[in-house]
Amino acid sequence: MRLIKIYFNVLFALFALVLLSGCLNVNIKSALPNQTYYNLDNIKLSSTKCNNKKNASDFGLNISVLSPFDGKDILLYGDNQEIKILENYKWIDLPKNMIRNAFVKVGINNCMQITQNPPISQRINTIKISVNEMYLKSNKNEHEAYIYLVYEILGYDMKRLQYGVIQTNASNINPAIALQNAVNEAIEKVIKEL
Prior knowledge:
Blueprint: H1 2-31, E1 36-38, E2 57-65, E3 73-77, E4 83-91, H2 95-109, E5 112-116, E6 125-139, E7 142-154, E8 160-172, H3 175-193
Parallel strand pairs: 1-4, 2-5, 2-6, 3-6
Antiparallel strand pairs: 3-4, 6-7, 7-8
Helix pairs in contact: 2-3
């Protein structure tokens, strides 16, 4: 008889736990704000014909983004140097991945062959991009996006062939589009330097 009571109590506890977890899930899901996801890579591939392989440049690509900026949250800097996370706006992927994809597309549009993580045996130059800042500031009804990056061209022997700093900014009512425009301008500037 005592064993039956123990089984009954265990079954009742499990049944109550299942019921409560269902209620908690519903309440948590209904309390979450509606999220809108954006992609930094909004580059469209053009129909540029690159028939002459001798004129095409081959590069490896290495992109890094400093950790505060390489998350799915979009950062808004205030006047008092306080940093806020924009609610309801999220990146669909990490910025370093989205910037890498956009850079490859811009390269293709400019008749460049860009290889992500090429093997060492492939003796090609590497473009190394370090995004040091990528954030927003709010101006009345618009958002101003700021990008600061450093690029290097490294030879296959890892000697620095070229170095530069790119700073861009762009404005838009939509904060994600402002950042897209600033990133696109920065990528175009790097490509022109090659």
